[in-house]
Amino acid sequence: MKKLLSIASMLIVLLNLGGFNKAKAQQISDEERMEWWTDARFGMFIHWGIYSVPAGFYKGEPQKNSAEWIMNRGQIPVAEYAKFAELFNPTLFDAKEFVGLAKEAGMKYMVITAKHHDGFAMFHSKCNPFNVVDATPFGRDVMKELADECAKQGIKFGFYYSQAQDWSHPGGMGNNWDKIMQRVSSDAYVMEKALPEVNQLLSDYGDIAIFWWDTPRAMTKEVVDSLYHVTTALQPAIITNDRLGDDYPGDHKTYERHMPKKKPEDKYWELCQPVSSSWGYRSDDQNFQSVEALLRNLADASSMGGNYLLNVSPTCLGTLAPTAVERLKAVGAWMKKNSEAIYETQASPCSRVDWGYITMKKTDGNTKLYLHVFDWEAGKITVPIRNKSAKASLLTNGSKKFKTKAGEEGLTVQLSGDAPDEINSVIVLELADAPDAIEPKPFGQDENGVVAFITESAEFENMHGLGVKYNSSKDCVGSWTNEHERVYWTFAIEKPATFHVTAKTAGVADSEFAVELNGQTKTVKLNATGDYGDFKTVEIGKFEIKEPGNYKIIFKPVQGNWQPVNLKDVVMTPVK
Length: 576
Hints:
This protein has eleven helices and 29 strands. It is an alpha+beta fold. The strands form seven sheets. It has an eight-stranded parallel sheet.
């Protein structure tokens, strides 16, 4: 019996086959690689696979979660799930039409699921017969058709790949229900399937702009290293996200479903979000976002210097739901007139405003602020800047001018006439000088020196995008199921002191988190309260702050000792 190649040996073979150009890789700086991506701002995400056949239903019953999780949620055995491939025949799929729709919507790049957690390859995998060419009556390489068409139409193309979870391979992670499986190691899965498939995707499909990893698990460092190195070696200009592994931040941070409440500290970040409720196609999913919501998301992300990756879910016939098409075309109609306010823009220099969003563009020493006005009926809007001289005109009609007036709260723009756009009317503010933003007073201490954190203002580090969020019904941080996700608040201290920190938590099992503040860490054991609505006060400990300034308090699960908890009423009280 031949011994399997080690991962390191296989990596060397793959790099040699791929023609790794080390010199080329070293010549490309991070800014050069990321320039087109930051200029683009808007892309299309596509979740498509044989899960579109059952479309969210198994044995006549709807399964929870998005459609692509049906194998997991329905506990479907591998052999039975494979039968969906025999029914997958998307004869109405037209790559030219699909890419054309993305272009019409104003999207500049496309990322599609080459392999999701179910293990099915939507390309002609050379090592995995469970693929769209060999296992379906369709018999066509969807990835190849889309890659070629994107190249023709000038759309950047990228792959999503589930590197750790694979419910069809005995070494892949995530399948704990199919008892017939003869288990092998995770390393064996990577050598036999993941690494060869990643190599193929990066070698046989032309220029790949993006590789989008998903749901990292406890894989060995050698495994993760091999996946990382083959990716960056074969496509030196490629952009990757932050989901390969904890020690691999990638090129940009990923926010899933939920928009960050304020500009992230990361230079590059992206919000991915489905146009409806489910990532993959569900026949019962009619919860589509409105056109206004989509335009708000696009403007909001751009105003904070981020990208918006909007997901669509083709049916098993290869088409999109009519409502999804209608939404994309509506966004595209707005982009056709107003894309200058999105493409190649920078984050707003100002704090959030209540009438809409602000994007910025600096060219040749001149600054333009694009005012995305969603509340035209207000009659006037205030831009929180100290600049006293500015020209204001409508983006879609430069002859339409608006009066401006400087004041203590900022520069006021007087609106006139009916709203030029039903949803988002854009005014261009041309400044004579660099923008001088009026910063709001930071959240901090009350008159007694106490810091009482507003639960709704909590921020989240959704490292793997699995759901921690604000729960309005319980006024708490909830859905905190993933031990990699962190919760934090930023605040200002004017009166330094030693602070006693308390919080309230609720949960059905014992848990443990660490609290970090000003370089100090306290590990806190959390006793079960019996119910997620039964909150008990937790003594976190004392933290010393010696200097005035801005600080961050971070709550992070202790890995291996974490069970979901709800969190609220975090308070810092000076110790007298």
